[in-house]
Amino acid sequence: EEEEEKEEEEEKEEKEEEEEKEKEEEKEEQLQTHPPLSLQEKKKKKEQTPQNL
Q1: Region 14-30: what's the mean pLDDT?
Q2: What span, in angstroms and rounded, lies between the C-alpha atoms of 12 and 25?
Q3: Is the sign of the CA dihedral 31, 34, 38, 44 positive or negative?
Q4: How far is CA 27 from the centre of its chain?
Q5: Residue 31 above 80 pLDDT?
Q6: Which segments show compositional bias classed as Acidic residues (predicted)?
């Protein structure tokens, strides 16, 4: 039984590591596919500036 528990623990850890890798890859993909935030930031600034200026 102890052997089985050990194996389960190892499998859990492996899964978690896989998920971490996937998250990292997703982040990088998003950075590549989406343009830098400058466009969105400009929009935000426009929205933030009061119109009476």
Answers
A1: 93
A2: 20
A3: negative
A4: 4
A5: no
A6: 1-28
**Residue that the structure tokens 């993909």 belong to:** 29
Residue 35 DSSP class: P
Q: Which helix (H) or strand (E) holds 36?
A: none
What pTM, to 2 d.p., does this model score? 0.46
Segment 34-52 shows an average pLDDT of: 70
Distance separating alpha carbons of residues 50 and 39, to the nearest angstrom: 19
Name the token pair of 6.
Answer: 């050990």
Confidence of residue 51 (pLDDT cuts 50, 70, 90): low
Query: Letter for the amino acid at 11?
Result: E
CA torsion sign for 14, 19, 24, 25 is positive
Q: What angle do CA 24, 25, 27 make, to 5 degrees?
A: 65
